[in-house]
Amino acid sequence: MDFLKELEKRSEAVNEALDELLPAAGAYPPAIHEAMRYSLFAGGKRLRPVLALATAEMLGGSPGDIMPAACALELIHTYSLIHDDLPAMDNDDLRRGIPTCHKKFGEAMAILAGDALLTLAFGLITLCPARGRITPERLITVVREVASAAGTSGLIGGQVADIGSAADTVDGETLAYIHRCKTGAMYRVSVRTGAILSGSGDEDLERLTEYAEHLGMAFQITDDILDIVGDEKKMGKPAGSDLKNNKATYPALYGMDEARRMASLEAGLAVRCLDAYGEKAGFLRELARFVVERSH
Ligand code: GRG
Questions:
Q1: CA distance linking residue 36 with residue 34, whole number of Å
Q2: What is the reported pTM?
Q3: How many Å apart are CA 100 and CA 78, to the nearest integer?
Q4: How far is the CA of 286 from the centre of ligand 1 (A)?
Q5: Dihedral angle at the C-alpha atoms of 196, 202, 208, 214, nearest 10 degrees?
Q6: Atom of ligand 1 nearest to the CA of 88
Q7: Could you tell me where the DSSP H helices lie in 230-255?
Q8: What's the rounded Cα separation, in Å, for the pair 66 and 197?
Q9: Residue 64's domain spans which residues?
Q10: Less packed terminus of the chain by CB within 10 Å, N or C?
Q11: Residues with CB under 6 A from ligand 1
Q12: Residue 174's domain is classified under what CATH number?
């Protein structure tokens, strides 16, 4: 399989669905819709929706039917990036290779664009047709799980702990908590969304949740590494942002070599969780390898 080609094809399908599901740029009031679309369509690998769709496909679910929920995950991810870049947070000027939302539209509109993406996300989940294996009960479960992943026990909790942790004082346990919540929670819920909406049983859900947890950790440790050694052009954002903000990271705490070893260990553990699925898990397996080998 040519993984990168396959990823591009899948992310293209997500882009098309996002375009259909989002209010048009000119819809009144245009200022907010332009800002939302600006950040959403600035690029981005679409890993979270692709993960949800690939999980559904592997389990014999219907990826087309879960597309609105997959898009919701990308909306929440983009909202978190817009808010993360704000002056009150990381104060970054570049994201996905272009000026950050607040640099382009001002701080008020960037806050509102993030809020609007987050709010729209929950509306989108309800657009998944409640038929076949997508029962109303499973849709409600997904809404609850996505709310939890985006809230204080996920994204926001991780961000709060991150803000309160300087690089020189944080311990390994706190850093693992930050990564698990700030990044891991969205990976976890992406896989679970695909599995739950495909009617998966407890055994699949448990195995795939473990896959997602290792994947999220591998991804974030690699992100920490790329912030030091990555190419700014490929990443579409300045390198060295963690150092500038005195952020706790795996290379800062454990050293670069050990951080690399830990990232590849996590990716390997993720791959092992897929043993039961044989060839059907080819894409998810390659995805775990990709997150540690990527350049952006
Ligand atoms: C509620 C005020 C308020 C803020 C929320 C939750 C939050 C702010 C910020 C956390 C978001 C964050 C930066 C998480 C780190 C995850 C990460 C490394 C994101 C980059 O993901 P990629 O590489 O990005 O998948 P693309 O651009 O490819 O989608």
A1: 6
A2: 0.96
A3: 11
A4: 22
A5: 120
A6: 2
A7: 232-235, 241-244, 250-254
A8: 7
A9: 3-293
A10: N
A11: 44-45, 47, 77, 80-81, 83-84, 96, 155-156, 159, 182-183, 223
A12: 1.10.600.10
How does pLDDT run across 264-282, given as a tens digit for each residue?
Answer: 999 999 999 999 999 999 9
| Sequence-separated (6 or more) residues with CB below 8 Å from residue 25 | 33, 34, 37
Is 237 within 8 Å of 94 (Cβ atoms)?
yes
Q: CA–CA distance from 180 to each of 49, 53, 153, 174, 269 (Å)?
A: 18, 22, 10, 10, 15
- Mutating to test ligand 1, I would choose from 81, 156, 187, 222 the residue with most ligand atoms within 8 A of its C-beta, which is 81
What would the pLDDT profile of 164-185 be if each residue is shown by its tens digit? Answer: 888 778 999 999 999 999 999 9
First-to-last C-alpha distance (Å) of the chain: 21
Both structure tokens of 201: 């049983």
Distance, CA of 58 to CA of 87 (rounded, Å): 41
- Tokens standing for residue 253: 């705490």
- Could you read off the pLDDT of 111-135 as tens digits, one per residue? 999 999 999 999 999 999 999 999 9
Q: How many domains does the chain have?
A: 1
From 18, 71, 83, 90, mutation site for ligand 1 pocket: most ligand atoms within 8 A of C-beta: 83
Q: What gap in Å lies between CA 223 and CA 227, rounded to an integer?
A: 6
Per-residue pLDDT tens for 195-244?
A: 999 999 999 999 999 999 999 999 999 999 999 998 887 777 778 888 88
